[in-house]
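Researcher: I need the complex structure. Ligand is protoporphyrin IX containing FE. Inputs:
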Amino acid sequence: MLWDLYRTFEFDPFLFLIGAAGCILLLSKIHFSTKGGLRNGLRKPPGPKGWPLIGNLLDMPKSHQYLTYMEWRKKYDVIGVNVCGQPIVILNSRQAAHDLLVKRSAIYSNRPQMEVLNKWGGWDWTLAFMQGSEEMHRQRRLLNQCLNKGMIARYHTTIQNEALDFCSRLMKSPERYEELIDRMSGANIMSISYGHQVGEETDENVERIHAVFVQLIKLGNAGSHIVDMFPALSALPSWFFGSNFAKTMECLASLMDKSLTVPYFQGLREIDLGTAKTPSMLHTLIEAYKQDDGSVAHERSIQSVLTMMVYPEAQRKAQAEIDGLLKGERLPTFEHRKSLPYVEATMNEVLRWKPTLPLGLAHQSTEDDVYNGMFIPAGTTIFPNTWACLHEEADFPDPGAFKPERYMDGAKFKEGSILAKDFVFGYGRRACSGKHLADAIVWMNITLVLAIFDISLPVGKSGSPIMPDLNHKYGATTIHHKPFQCNISLRSESLGELLRASLNT
Ligand code: HEM
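Model: Output:
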């Protein structure tokens, strides 16, 4: 990056002045926030000691941060660090996450400034990275109107049809499972948001969602870039941070612009022509803004394939439950959800085992606060360590193992079980707006795939099964499985017939 900087930088007195002003602001911010007084004998949240001015910059892990924070948790469940003057608090327990982000949601529901994404990456219209404002409340209200729990039943038919379509494509080309999961996630978003049916094989809207997601992984969470820590630096042109960075930003901004406008106008045209699929959110809220977050649901679906392959016992139990209810004569629908507790437990474990957003999305506090004698100043960035909340040995013995049985009481779903969905979709007033929709999409796809297919490990030349690498990659915000091979085959010809027949009805 420095090399790019030298190559592209030519001395410009105006830029020099801006840069100098930025540095002064930066130093004064560091000076005042590290000096920031503690009142009446209150203490700071504990954490590694750090250095003058840069604070804990050198202590911060470069990758898989949630695991390092879990290590630190052995000493403290609420950790305070300070990176170049920016106070950061990491909530390492269910109790702390609930106490602050849910119970005190009124003052912990801002987002840290995401200058890089919002200013250069064209994300300023997306709710997820918006700071508290009238527009943010308006968007949440609109989304809630379309996606509250009671509304989701309106989309059941669409979700079921997309899942059947996915299964029929999977039946023809099982080796393309990953690409097909991508298509299915995008297709759900497109039809539910805009009433737009995606094309036969490739669809530019779905491909765009995927491309945005790939760029986003590179950029990541709050504080991933120096400009997010010191917003004054955003007065500099993007090329100041390297030509690659500037190109990535340009590409992301153009993708984001098209993601907003292309499907929106396509949807309006389809409504006008009467060719739109209904019901869609666009139908409900012609003027509403839309969110493209199918990518997270995508990773959930991939992980369910992975777990079913590596944990065949869980797969067999879930299939036995489905067969016991439907006798191989019908395919599951949403009506069967309550009668399939082991499938529910399996889904809960898929969500818990490797939460896609292990540190959620960062929140920011808007008022000074005191928690258990610790002073948390306004403007603190708060990371809920969702991974730690769902990997607590006391709550989930042997937390690294995939065990749906944790939630079972005999043949019933155990009352009072800790539900992963209370954590993986975030907390309080900024919790995921699409959580009920995502819950329905993930359930339907897991259940149909279990009902129709067997997923197994591929066999190598020596005749022994090839185990996938279960270590995951961690982008700046999200967990990703490493590529793996698997065998997906129809459980029986009659199930294939049932699938073909349901596609024709
Ligand atoms: C399995 C799939 C999904 C997971 C695990 C997930 C998870 C999350 C998480 C952890 C957050 C941050 C919550 C917080 O700040 O505390 C979030 C925010 C958000 N999600 Fe999702 N999400 C999923 C699917 C969806 C879908 C399908 C949609 C849209 C239909 C959606 C729309 C949003 C929006 C709009 C926000 C921002 C809310 C705000 O900042 O006020 N999500 N999601």
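Model: Summary of the prediction. DSSP finds 19 helices and twelve strands in the chain.
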